[in-house]
Automatic annotation (TrEMBL):
Residue ranges annotated for the Lactate/malate dehydrogenase N-terminal domain, each copy included: 35-177
A GO molecular function held by the record: L-malate dehydrogenase (NAD+) activity
GO biological process terms, semicolon-separated: malate metabolic process; tricarboxylic acid cycle
The protein, known as: Malate dehydrogenase
Organism lineage string: Eukaryota, Metazoa, Spiralia, Gnathifera, Rotifera
Catalytic activity: (S)-malate + NAD(+) = oxaloacetate + NADH + H(+)
């Protein structure tokens, strides 16, 4: 595991300059088909994410689903002179059609935080939304890779896994919580603090996606940089609280949408490149994991044609990072348990 992490730095160093993969050129698009669905496409994340995906030559078909407004979003995006064919679906009765044939399903559907709330406060609303949507994925596109953005990710991923399991179609390589925004933020903040080019910085961020379950591994930074204890404290704190920083700045109108759209697009392009046969594709993601004592855990992951090929593990943690792992314990475990218990009750209710 440690060996793979030392290799990882080099891999990431080589892919970092290619982070920006939006282009309106269709000349080299080829004839392959790549079908991607966005569930929650009319929302704060859904709209800019759908725009970024529409701009990519990697996508042949873009399916937009929401319970409202997708017809307008779809009509608008469909006028852009790029390859992806846009189809818009609205309302529960069109969900199955939105999903049929999809290879990658992104789920930003769900309510966002307001100031004073934790991500876990979104559980009551978003758990059911994710369970309903993933149930439909299980029936209509059981082999698709499902990327969950809706919070609380620490719980919504276990919910999705249990739903897929119930339908007999769970592939642990294909149900992933999107934690790319933590990696994006970590690179940005470190680059700012150290005067580096942010597109050449990679900080593995492991753990979960809320408060102190977000564990940036600044000791495994690429390129290697050293930090004072004070720098470690302030960077770690800022990365862990970055979502709240945006929620407070938006003052009741939502949480991160534009940076999240970028992060989800980056994750999508990486997955699609791997599905297309590109080697050496690595992104962090929250997934069923054997790397630590936690049942679900984010680590750097290698992607191939079949989804996640393998985890790169957590590498050698510094004393500081070992302490962060300790601090994450109770919240992450209770978030996972809460998701699993919800799924059990949800599936029980469906049987009646
Ligand atoms: N994983 C991450 O790093 C991040 C996750 N988030 C999470 O993403 C979620 C979405 O955030 P925003 O786009 O800002 O919220 P939003 O409220 O602007 O958009 C959510 C969209 O979901 C739709 N929706 C609600 N129920 C639905 C259903 N059953 N089926 C399909 N669509 C449905 C709504 O109509 C709306 O268009 C939130 O839970 C937020 O906490 C936000 C930022 C980062
Ligand atoms: O903070 C939130 O509620 C949204 C989110 O997950 C993030 O920005 O990382």
């Amino acid at each position: 595991m440690n060996k793979s992490v030392s290799v990882l730095g080099n891999v990431l160093w080589s892919v970092a300059p290619k982070l920006v993969r939006y282009t309106s050129s269709t000349r080299d698009a080829g004839s392959f088909t790549r079908k991607v669905a966005v569930l929650g496409a009319s929302g704060g994340i859904g709209q800019p994410l759908s725009l970024l995906l529409k701009l990519s030559p990697l996508i042949s078909d873009l399916s937009l689903y929401d319970i409202q407004h997708t017809k307008g979003v779809g009509a608008d995006l469909s006028h852009i002179e790029t390859r992806a064919k846009v189809k818009a679906y609205v309302g529960q009765e069109q969900l199955a059609d939105a999903l049929k044939g999809m290879e990658l399903v992104l789920i930003p559907a769900g309510v966002p935080r307001k100031p004073g709330m934790t991500r876990d406060d979104l559980f009551n609303t978003n758990a059911t939304i994710v369970a309903d949507l993933v149930s439909s994925c299980a029936k209509n596109c059981p082999r698709a890779l499902i990327a969950i953005i809706a919070n609380p990710v620490n719980s919504t991923v276990p919910i999705a896994a249990e739903i897929m399991k119930h339908h007999g179609v769970y592939d642990e390589k294909k149900v992933i919580g999107v934690t790319t925004l933590d990696v994006v933020r970590a690179a940005t903040f470190v680059a700012e603090a150290k005067g580096l080019d942010p597109t050449r910085v990679f900080v593995p961020v492991i753990g979960g996606h809320s408060g102190n379950t977000i564990i940036p591994l600044l000791s495994q930074l690429s390129p290697p940089v050293s930090f004072s204890k004070q720098e470690l404290d302030s960077l770690t704190k800022r990365i862990q609280n970055a979502g709240t920083e945006v929620v407070e700045a938006k003052a009741g109108t939502g949480s991160a949408t534009l940076s999240m759209a970028h992060a989800a697009a980056r994750f999508t392009f990486s997955v699609l490149e791997a599905l297309g046969g590109k080697e050496g594709v690595v992104e962090c993601g929250y997934i069923l994991s054997k790397e630590t004592e936690f049942k679900y855990f984010a680590t750097p992951l290698s992607f191939t044609r079949n989804g996640v090929e393998r985890s790169h593990g957590i590498g050698k943690l510094s004393e500081y990072e070992t302490k962060l792992m300790e601090e994450a314990k109770s919240e992450l475990n209770s978030n996972i348990k809460k998701g699993e218990e919800f799924a059990k009750a949800y599936l029980q209710k469906q049987k009646k």
